[in-house]
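We emphasize that the prediction below concerns an isolated chain of 362 residues; any contacts that depend on oligomerization or on bound cofactors are therefore not represented. The input was used exactly as deposited, without trimming of termini.
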Amino acid sequence: MKRWALSIQVAFTFIGTVVGAGFASGKEVMQFFTRFGAWGPYLIIVSTLFFVWIGAKVMLLSAELKAKSYEDLNKHLFGEKTGRWVSHVMLIVLLGVNAVMLAGAGSIFSEHLNLSYQTGLIVTMFACYLLLRKGMNAIITVNTFVVPVMMGFTLFLMFETLRHPDSGHWLHATSEISPWAAWLSPFLYAGFNLSMSQAVLVPLGSAIGDPRVLRRGAWIGGIGIGILLLAGHLALSARMPGIKQFDIPMGFLARELGAWLHWIYIFLIFMEIFSTLVADIYGLTLQLHERMKISQGVITMALLSICFLAGQFGFGLLLSTLYPIFGLLSLGWLFLITRDRQRPPGVPPTPPVTEELAASRL
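Result of the prediction step, given as a C-alpha cell string:
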C-alpha cells in the first residue's frame, strides 16, 4: 500500500507538472487538438502513449544515473559538450514557459477577478517564492491536493457538456488545416511538455529511485493527462468557434455552471498554473545553483523577475507564439530519449529501494 501511495504521488506530480497555464486554461488544448476538428481525439491518444512511455523513461533513467538536475540527463543523451549546450537552450525555453505560466495567472486576475493583470503577476511571484523555500515536499503536497480535484471538476464539466445542444460537434467537426500539421501536433505537444517536465521529473525520479513505483506512477500520470485532454477537448468542441476569443476558455465554460462552481474552477485553474510554475522554477533553481553556487533564494527571485518582464507581452500571444516553436526544438530530444536503451558505461544497476527509503528521500 505504501508503494501504491508513493506511485500515486508520483503520478499527481507528473500531471501537475504538465497541466500548466495553457492546459488548465484550455488554450493549449485548443492550439494542439481542438482546432483540428474530428482528428482531435486520435491526436490525444497518440500524445497519451508518449506521456506514459517517455515519462517512465525519463524518471527511470534519472534514477539509474542518480541525476541531480536535467543537465545530467542531457549530458547522457547528447554527450558532455553538446549536452551542456542543450541545457542552455532548455534554460531559455523553460524561462519562456514560466513567463507563460505567470502571464496565465495575470490573465485570471484580469478576466475573472476584476483585478489588474500586473497585480496577478506580482501576487503569484511572491507566493511562488515563499512556497519554494520548502523544496520538493511542497511541490508534491500541492499537486496531491490540486490534481485530483482538478480532474474531478474537468470530468464534471465534460459530463455537463453532454447536455449541450452541440455536444456531438467533436464527432464531425471539420478543419481546413493541413493533415500534416494535425499529425505533427501530438509529437510537438508531447515532446515539448515532456522535455520541459525534465526540470521536475529528473529530481523526482532520482529521489524516489524505485523502478516499480516510477513505472506505475508514469502509467497512472500519463493516462490521467490523456483523460484530462479528452475531457477538455470535448467541452471546448461543443462551443467552437466562438470560444476561441477567450484567453481562459475553460473559465468561460465554468461560468455556465453557476457562480459558485465558476469561482471554484477559476481557483483550481490558478492553482494548476501556480503548481507548474513552482515546479519549473524549482528545477531551474537546482540547475543554476549546481552551476553557479549562488544562494537558491537569490536565483529563484532572479528567475521570477525575468518571467515578470517577459510576461508583459500577454498570455495569449506568448502561448500561441512560443509553444509551437518550443515543440519543434523538443523533437530532437524526444527522438534521442526514445532510442536510449543502455546504461552508461561505469554506472552499475541501481539497487532496489525500499518504500521507507523512497519516502524518506522526499
